[in-house]
Amino acid sequence: MKRIVILSGAGLSAESGLGTFRDVDGLWTRYDLEDVATPGGFARDPALVHDFYNARRANMAAARPNAAHEALTRLSKHGDVMLVTQNIDDLLERAGATDVIHMHGELARALCHACGARWVAPPVMSADAPCPVCNAAATRPDVVWFGEMPYHMDRIEAALARADLFVSIGTSGTVYPASGFVDLARMAGAGTLELNLAASGGRFDAVREGAATNVVVEWVAEVLDDA
Question: Record's Gene Ontology CC terms (predicted)?
Fold first, then answer.
């Protein structure tokens, strides 16, 4: 089987009931992103930020993996496949995937802004909760906010440099650094494929349009049949 790097975005989890950034009446539209998804917003009003992510954590707990999560899990257990996700939900793991690279962090994890400690987040976090390591009241969700560097970039870029195929699923891919992944893959000689509800306009060799539970499941079945 080819060496495959897969980048997934919000479109992968949309059919599980977790809305994308662009949903007209979604959770994101009821908040100003400057207030809830930036370091400055957290500094101004940590209670508001925790309220926002507590709501997202509750949404995640109520959601279930869909057929696309399950298909990617099957694929990841065969051959050299790296699963990279921009999503902060745990639906790939709950579908059975292991070693998922969360480049934007995880809702299920907490981070101490003071000492850098990380631990499993409780369902509800608060601004005055002490860090279990340094006891500072500086706990925040372990997610990457606008203006912060995504996690695991060295590992992702190394995998793209040796990949035979890069696949982008359910993401516009327009935000740096993910926006450069397709070009890194192409420069390394890899094929590129987009699976998305609608084409993003990126420089992909091929595009398949449709809901993730259709196009991802169909593509995975083809890859496994050819393996």
Answer: cytoplasm
